[in-house]
Structures are given as structure tokens and as C-alpha cells.
Amino acid sequence: MNKITSNSDGPVEIELTPGKTYSWCQCGRSKTQPFCDTESHLGTGISPKDFTVSSKRKVWLCMCKQTKMNPYCDGTHNKLKKIGAINQ
Ligand code: FES
Q1: Atom 2, ligand 1: which residue's CA is nearest?
Q2: 39 SS3 class
Q3: With bands split at pLDDT 50, 70 and 90, how would you rate the model's confidence at 83?
Q4: Of ligand 1's atoms, which has the minimum distance to the CA of residue 65?
Q5: 86 CB within 6 A, ligand 1
Q6: 45 in any annotated domain
Q7: Residue 81 C-alpha to ligand 1 middle, in angstroms?
Q8: C-beta 37 within 6 A of ligand 1
Q9: How far apart are CA 18 and CA 2, in angstroms?
Q10: Domain count across the chain
Q11: 19-77 pLDDT tens trace
């Protein structure tokens, strides 16, 4: 199975630390959203996205898992809400 699960109707704002590697959950099943919990994606065929930032800053991380600019929100969640495609 490799179906992405969308559980949120918007992004989450988080302050990130430079030099640290973050692992953004891409499957939507992690219990430690928006980050990977290292096991919930197993068997889905979907892997987390590792990323870093170069300076300390607040970012909006995608929670709907449909962004085209992962791990950052690109506004796609607004389209999903309009068509009722987000699991609540
Ligand atoms: S939460 Fe905004 S695009 Fe996913």
C-alpha cells in the first residue's frame, strides 16, 4: 500500500535549528507529526524526507502531505479542503 494519509487541514509552524537533520513524515501516518516516527511508514512504499535549514527560523511545514514543495506548505491544503479530500 502506498496511499498518503492527509490528516490535517493546514500546516504547522515550527522553529527549526540549523545543522540538525529533520525527517519530515511524507506518508501521513507518523504519530510524531510533522516528523517521522521511524516506523509508521513501513510497508507503505513511502519514505520520509530528510532536510536541514541553514539558519534558525520559523517555517510552515505541510501536514496535509500533498504539497509540491515538501516539506513546506504550498497552499495545496486549501484545494483539498474545498473538495473534502482531507480526513479529519
Ligand atoms: S498543509 Fe499546506 S500544502 Fe499541505
Answers
A1: 73
A2: coil
A3: confident
A4: 4
A5: no
A6: yes
A7: 10
A8: no
A9: 31
A10: 1
A11: 999 999 999 999 999 999 999 999 999 999 999 999 999 999 999 999 999 999 999 99
Residue 88 counted as domain residue: no
Q: Which of 33, 38, 29, 39 is nearest to 10 (CA)?
A: 33
Per-residue confidence band for 6, with pLDDT thresholds at 50, 70 and 90: low
* Residue 28 structural domain: 1-83
- Kindly state the DSSP code that residue 63 receives in the 8-state scheme: S
Locus of grid cell 513501513? 42
Give the model's pLDDT for residue 1.
44
Q: Where in 1-88 does DSSP place strands (E)?
A: 12-16, 22-24, 49-51, 57-61
Supply the pTM of this predicted model.
0.86
How many C-beta atoms lie closer than 10 Å to residue 27's C-beta? 21
